[in-house]
Design brief:
This protein has helices spanning 6-24, 29-48, 151-163, and strands spanning 69-79, 84-93, 97-101, 111-116, 121-131, 134-139, 143-144. By secondary structure, it is of the alpha+beta class. It has two domains: 6-48, no CATH class; 69-163, predicted glycosyltransferase like domains (Thrombin, subunit H, Beta Barrel), CATH 2.40.10.220. A six-stranded antiparallel barrel has the order 1-2-3-6-5-4. The N and C termini lie far apart (87 Å).
Length: 164
């Protein structure tokens, strides 16, 4: 078996290292930042449907009839028949609905009362979609729990006052 001297091996390794050095060198920081900004801009344009190679698509509101407004409110989901109260967060609202976030996965009836804690308004809500802890609901006209008139309003006010 032939012996290879360390000097010969070092020479070959050194030549290989010199040949690969430009490829192994990291680009300067401004180049990385520029590349990241360019990728981000293309992604933003792609999401908007306006990047080269993608057809133009006008912004839509999805299947909603009115625009959504981002909010962060505390609300109560009340099932009057089962006498249960579940706290939740309202992430956004529109004229006809809202997106809710539950604290943990729970069984909910198809329709329930949604009470805005700070405003004291109760909305009859119907589940439209659900994805894990988030759900979208459509809502009817509100009932003012600050001045209850009917038996139902008084009962909802009792739940609301107990949970505040």
């Amino acid at each position: 078996m032939a012996r290879i001297s360390r000097r010969a091996m070092g020479g070959e390794e050194g030549a290989l290292r010199r040949a690969l050095e430009p490829a192994l060198r990291l680009p300067e920081a401004p180049d990385i930042l520029e590349a990241a900004e360019a990728v981000e801009a293309v992604e933003e344009d792609r999401r908007k449907g306006q990047a080269p190679g993608y057809p133009y698509r006008a912004p839509t509101m999805g299947r909603r009839k009115s625009r959504r407004q981002r909010v962060l409110l505390t609300a109560l989901i009340i099932d009057v028949d089962a006498e249960t109260i579940i706290r939740c967060r309202v992430e956004n609202v529109s004229e006809t609905g809202a997106r809710l976030r539950l604290p943990d996965p729970q069984f909910l009836p198809a329709s329930f009362w949604l009470v805005a804690v700070t405003a004291g308004l109760a909305y009859r809500a119907t589940t439209v979609w659900r994805d894990g802890l988030r759900l979208g609901v459509s809502v009817d006209e509100p009932l003012d729990l600050n001045d209850p008139v009917s038996l139902l309003e008084r009962r909802l006010r009792t739940f609301w006052m107990r949970a505040r």
